[in-house]
Batch of 3 targets.
Target 1
Amino acid sequence: MGNSTKVRKKKGKGKNIEDEFSPTIRRIIKKKISLLSDFRVVTRKNQKEYTSLFEKELEDISDPIIAQRKADCIAYQIIAEND
């Protein structure tokens, strides 16, 4: 079956939330946010902002390898801008 990129609906806090990312791509985003927090770019206050940035950039990508490469580029660019 492999990685599915179908839209799944999750129940959370009384409403349906559409999650359009596969678990693999969601994991990629979490790892990049973690990397940026190691570089002290992402804090708890601005974590949602950076997460939505990655989600916006990766929303049309279904291939995890391409998503990984694009997320790497975004993370490196953010790190370079904050040095």
Target 2
Amino acid sequence: MNTRTDTAPRPAAVVNAEIRALLMRRGGLAPTERAAYERLLVEWARAVRAEVVVAA
């Protein structure tokens, strides 16, 4: 996962795929996975906003 803020965000589709892979694991999310999931959601939202700005 890209956690640097000085670079362009990863495409939303890439982050979404990572979120889906995380959620497909059996047994629900462990506490460490929950934290990763929350970080990915924030990253995904940034990527979506960036893509909308570029499209506009």
Target 3
Amino acid sequence: MSDGTYLPQESAVLWDMEEAGGNWSDELEHVVGNVLWVQVGLSNTAKQAGLPVAQFVACNEKVLERIGVVDLTGVQLMLPVGKAPARRTVGLDPILAASDPANSTIVPVEIDGGEDDTCIRNVTQIIDELTTACARDEIRFGSAAISQSSSYLFNELAGMDRTAWMGQSVGRIETQVSVREFSLDTSGHLAAHIARSCQLAGVTSSVLITLRRDVVALDLR
């Protein structure tokens, strides 16, 4: 640093890498299902600075660049909102300004708090907070409902079932969001907003956030 002081290397670490994998192939047309999954642990820095959702998603995008063109169907993140503050995110204006209006879409969203019923008890507060926080980016959430169905937007991989991490779900929030484009950037932005809204509503456990839409081709090369 210019003032002659230095931070220890570990102070810049936002997460501790644990496991990762994916359904990859040398032939892109054969890459289906869960193309990438990653399990990490929060570092001490992140526990103080805040959940590094945007940074984590950006890191995953760099990994996907090695594949090339990805048909992104959806994104799922389990975030420990009780372990670190969920900070207000910066706006998406620089990204969305260049987006094609033809790519506007409606994206179904699930917010599952597992055995903690705080999410479903405070669904109105969570959706109202999301609507207010995302208004600047012209992102609009629709009405919400509580579901106890076993039919999810995504099914987890074997050995990574949500119940193993969050206990038996007592219900989840189902809603939808209107966005000008569906991408890793917007997905990470939305997940960070959802985590913050859940935290403001009093959630102190983990939440599983799932966004899924019809296939849209992303050229990440």
